[in-house]
Amino acid sequence: MRSRPIGFLLATLAGAVLALGGTSAASASPSTAPASTASTASGDVGTADACYTWGGTLREGSSGEAVRQLQIRVAGYPGTGNQIAIDGAFGPATRAAVTRFQSAYGLAADGIAGPATFNKIYQLQDNDCTPVNFTYAELNRCNSDWSGGKVSAATARANALVTMWKLQAMRHAMGDRPITVNGGFRSVSCNSAVGGAANSRHMYGHAADLGAGSQGFCGLAQAARNHGFTEILGPGYPGHNDHTHVAGGSGRFWSAPSCGI
Q: pLDDT, tens digit, for every residue of 11-67?
């Protein structure tokens, strides 16, 4: 696990200042994820976070950017074979994902996202909104600006962020053992250079290729079924005996015959 950066400590201090009724510039969030300043239903302001700060409690029927940000963080808890939409609408699927997230971390599992749920998320993310155990650099070994794929650079980067949160959920479910990411986003030219499929989800930012690590390729492929990956390719599938490929996106295609998938 990476150590928490100094920005997180400053943001946490800012939360204490806010709770006392003061203000602090350190509570501001980056422009990529502006912080919410709304109070919770109980009137308490949640811990400030340098990435994104939730204010009010979210539940089924809620909508907006705060819900969308929550959906990104619980994308890895959709239930076996499922994938939740990152659409800002808190429906039954989002409630179920929140409930599974809460259960995974020993919280009261009621499907309502309040201070306890958000504080756990704050512990799990860095200032750039990535989960603490994964980085943008791991998910892009092609270029520095996420350009040249099948979608805009901003969309490819956003898709990779969701992929990382799915991997974070999978990592936790597998005993918090490190997961090795050998690659992720590819531009069209990078994909061509490595002989990738013409419709590879790598070009959309949805995909990651995983090394065996301590879990083994089959262990990773089997676990991925529970964490929002609609594409899983592993041992027994042509060209995938030396890695496990996982991806999100529309449709579903799982094939790792040597692993029983």
A: 443 333 333 333 332 222 333 333 333 333 333 445 689 999 999 999 999 999 999
Q: What is the DSSP letter of 230?
A: S
Which has the closest alpha carbon to 254: 82, 96, 84, 85? 82
3-state secondary structure of 207: strand
pTM: 0.83
Respond yes or no: is residue 240 known to be catalytic.
yes
Q: How far apart are CA 152 and CA 208, in angstroms?
A: 18
Q: Which residues, 6+ apart, have CB-to-CB distance to 207 below 8 Å?
A: 163, 184, 185, 200, 201, 231, 245, 246, 247, 248
Q: DSSP letters along 160-191, please?
A: HHHHHHHHHHHHHHTTS----EEE-B--HHHH
Q: How far, CA to CA in Å, does 62 sit from each of 78, 79, 233?
A: 18, 21, 36
What's the angle, vertex CA 130, arms to CA 97 and CA 96, rounded to 5?
0
> What percent of the chain has pLDDT above 90?
81
**Could you give the angle at which helices 65-73 and 153-173 cross, rounded to 10 degrees?**
50
Catalytic residue (choose from 206, 240, 243, 245): 240
Kindly state the helix (H) or strand (E) to which residue 124 belongs, with its residue range.
Answer: helix 115-124
